[in-house]
Amino acid sequence: MLQRISLWLFLLWAGISIGVAFTAIPVVFSPAIKETLPPGEAGRVAQSILLRFFQWQAGIGGIAGLLYACELLRTPQAAGKVRAWILPPLLILSLVALSWVHPILARMHTERYALQTTEVRRRELAARFGAWHGVSQIGNVTILLGVLACGYNLTQLVGVYRTKSD
Question: How far apart are CA 133 and CA 112, in angstroms?
Answer without folding.
Answer: 14
